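Practice set, problem 2.
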Amino acid sequence: MEFDQDHELEQCLEQLRQIASQHQQDPKRLLHILRSLEQVHRDICDQTFLPALPNTRHELFSLLLEIEAHGGWPYIYRVKLQELCQNLESEIFA
């Protein structure tokens, strides 16, 4: 069962990569895709993950060990405006 779910998730991720690739010259479309992914991340976290958290200390400890062992808390990186401006500046004056 877990393998089927992993396979289904990988198919969805590959479709997202293909969509992004099709729009690689369209920063507005790519920004829309990234914002959509961020919203999905928040929705899953708030509506599905948090309510599914364990009720006992033992189960919570087990989950925390799993999180620590496999890369920590999922995080969506946001480019800071200052970093974006620095990158543009370095390209302009290069």
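Problem 2, part (b): a different protein.
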Amino acid sequence: MNIILLSGGSGKRLWPLSNSIRSKQFVRLLNHNGKYESMLQRVYRQILKIDPSANVVVATGQSQVNIIRNQLGKDIPICIEPSRRDTFPAIALASLYLRDKLNINETETVIVCPVDPYVDDSYFEGLYEISKIVNNNSLYLMGIEPSYPSEKFGYIIPATDEKVSEVLTFKEKPTKEKAKEYIKEGALWNSGVFAFKLNYIINRINRKYGYIQYSELLSGYDGLEKISFDYAVVEYEQRIKVMRYCGFWQDIGTWDSMTKVIPTNTIGSAILDESSTNSYIINNLNVPVIGVGCEDTVIVASQDGILVSNIESSETIKQYVENVEISPMIIEMEWGTQIILDNSKKCQTKKITINSDKCVSDYITDYYEESWTVLEGAGEIQMNNTSKKIGQGDVFKISKETKFSLFAQSVMTVISIGVWC
């Protein structure tokens, strides 16, 4: 399979664990063999389980590149959008990336998929099946058999109840009563999956922009019209088919839905008393959080903030987060993570973790002076054309505009104190 994973989002619906850099798909709360993984990691793992030779490209903005490489490794192909121009330009750029950078033949099938569906493996078996039946002049979608009359999703009305059917029409997000009517007609949830031959989308790109190479579209990307794939392609396509998927499918874009799939009621240093019912505490801080007599409550604590909410009402937090000025305090880098412990007008204190065999390359401080103290681990620092082994208890200082690199031979934890100019 050739799969484009669309990765975006503003990071407001799973606040305070998500932020402007770490959108919901990067939050590690899903259990896999006793370890926590993110939606991105889960989807990528499931794809490779079904098709180990799949070509997977993540389409995203520059702000997410570090965290994607942190979670999936440095070799994952990433098609970087210079700015947000909606789904058609993003899919167009990623499709040209497949052709011009990864040398994928135009006769091969491409599947565009959201990065965050919570599904079982049969979903990706369905994608694999779609990849084998797509023909040159048609667009295929995947429709989800509804489990309830949702007002959150668009609907696809198929012409028949066969597994693969022509699409009769589309319906926008309806009221609950309308959704009931659609379901009686055999409607499916629109999952946001598109499948087509690469030459199919190349033809649509040529119609929209003229014959163009990846590098040309990239250079002119900021000037492109913002337009969705639905409005640019689907609306005008006469030959659309939909494959019915009846397996498990869960949208986990809110704390309400997330609490339905996390493995336990408490994560981190957290206690819920016996009188608490249907309540959850997710704590990323190093101080305990205790819930007493909680009912239908979700409590989430991180360096970015603290949320206390009724579970159902948690869907509305986006409007409140938009009105709060928030600077991300946890940042995942390609080489590890950094947590801002204190931020003032005069200095900033960070706890930095560098993963084993990773390198902080060509670091240049913005501070007048920055002091790093190694709490644990060992590595080698290169600065001023010299190399030096460092380990627990060692301290080194970096003056402004001094470049250095630090290679971690084992997991290193460092406290950095930077004094502002």
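Answer key, part (b): The two ends are 52 Å apart (CA to CA). The mean pLDDT is 92.
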